[in-house]
Each structure stands twice: as structure tokens, then as C-alpha cells.
Amino acid sequence: MQGLFSKVSVLAAVFVMSSAHAAGNAGDVASGKSIYLNGKGDVPACNSCHGQDAMGDDAMGTPRLAGQGFAYTAKQLKDFADDKRMDTVMYVMNTNAKGMSDQDMMDVAAYLENLEYDALASSDMNQVKELGNPVGVRYLGKGIAQHGAPERGVSACHSCHSYNGRGMYPIYPMIGGQKYVYLVNQLKQFRDGSRANDQMGQMRTVAKNMSDEDIYNVATFLTSAPRTTMGNSRWPENKPH
To answer: I want to staple 65 with a disulfide (CB 3.0 to 4.6 A). Which of 54, 73, 83, 169 is the partner?
Structure first.
């Protein structure tokens, strides 16, 4: 057990150092904006799938990228390029990422992390239903997100992703305010193992014990989860990057 904690500490330290360096020196926001909006070479513009505002699209199944942590986004792009993660949504991310240099990836990640967005914008659940997707019960999803289901081996989302899934950078991404369809798809892929680029297999360990109903409930809550606590509407300006 002590060895495990040691490995976790080392991993966290590496991510903190790499993220701090990248956020401060390596990512060029202006270059990232150009790639996101216009593409580069054979790599098409990211906004064609993720939207001009990078808020994603439930009809396409694409995720919200606006405001996502630098290190997480850069890692996902690198994993797509190295085929450690396979794009089962639009089937283009592996090819697109292979056309990007490491610097391109860092530039896009820097742009997205610093992109202004509407904190209240999330999935339109009426549209989600019209698209034929089953939806969950929000308060049941809130219970799992905040407290987990320990009797079934399901950890609370908050334990890694922070309050209402607002992200615990640099390792754990923001999942609060994420698109509903994307959340459902990713949880199911972690559950069946078709997505396996999670840190130390943590998401696979949790998701394997979640039923379809659990997944729909959690996604229903997270997609509309506020980033602030009751009585305090201020989002900390010094949130870690």
C-alpha cells in the first residue's frame, strides 16, 4: 500500500510540474486559437465538430472543450495521436491528432483552457430526449456524484473531480457542465474497457460497477451541475491550471 501511495505521489508531482511549465511557457494561445478556428495543414478546424464556442454538440456526441484543463486536453490529443485512445464518436480524432505537432497540441490546449464560456450553458435535456437518448433522474445522480454508492463499489465523482465535477487539475478533468451524450458514452466505454487511457485505470474501476441507470443519472446531474456552492457565487480566480 505504501508503494502505491508513493507511485501516486510521484505521478501527481510529474503532472504538476509539467502542467505548470506548459501553462506558463509552452502553450501559445494565439496559435491555438488559429488552429481551433481555421485548422492547420491537413488538420481541419476543431470548431467544425466542437462548435465555435467549443461547447460541444449532443447531436454529434462531441464534448465541451471550453475551460478544460491544459494538461488533460494536451494528454488526450497525444493519446489520440499515439492510438492510446480511439475516437468512436466522429472517427477523426486519431487522424487529426497525428497531423499535429506536440507544440500544436499544447497551443490548442492553452487556447481552450483560457477560452471564455457561459458557465450556465449545458445540454438541453429536451433536445437530448428528442434525439432518442434515455435520460436519468437528476437528484439520484447528485447522490452518486457527491457520495458515491460504496455498497456497490462506486466512488463519489467529487473525490477526484472536485465539487460538482469542476475539475482537479492537472490530472482530473472538468466533467461538470460537460455534454450529456458525451458523458454517457465515455462512462459506458470505461465500463466495457473500450476506453483505457484513464490514470491507473481509476475510471474503469469505478464505471464497471455502474448500471446504465447510474450512468444516466450521474450524467443528468453533471451536465447541469453548478460550479459554485450555495451562498457563494464566486468562482475562485486562482483555480489551479
So the answer is: 54
